[in-house]
Amino acid sequence: MHQINPKKFKEIKNKTIPNPLRPKFRQKAQSNIYFLSQRKVSEEKKNKIIKNTKFIIILLLIIVGGYLLSN
Questions:
Q1: 35, 29 in Cβ contact below 8 A?
Q2: How many CA atoms are closer than 13 Å to the CA of 12, on its beta-carbon side?
Q3: What are the backbone dihedrals phi and psi of residue 56, each rounded to the nearest 5 degrees, phi first?
Q4: pLDDT, average across residues 20-25
Q5: Contact by Cβ (8 Å): 35, 28
């Protein structure tokens, strides 16, 4: 085992207790697991809506293009 050398220890000169650091306050949506899961669900819904709108726009463009080409 290692032996502790008492000569290597230094005395603490400033014995006052430092003020604790101010805690970092976060928004509830960033820290709470419930809100994190809610944000994930809302993000999935948002992605699904974007995907559906892209599909509808492409389908409308094909229909309108076909209609214009047939006339």
A1: yes
A2: 4
A3: -65, -40
A4: 57
A5: yes
What pLDDT does residue 55 have?
97
Residue bearing tokens 């599909």: 55
| pTM confidence score | 0.47
Alpha helices, H only, 6-32: 28-31
pLDDT for 36 beyond 60: yes
Q: Cα dist. 52→41, 56, 58 in Å?
A: 17, 6, 10
Q: Dihedral of CA 44/46/51/55: which sign? A: positive
DSSP 14-58: --SPPPPPPPPP--HHHH-HHHHHHHHHHHHHHHHHHHHHHHHHH
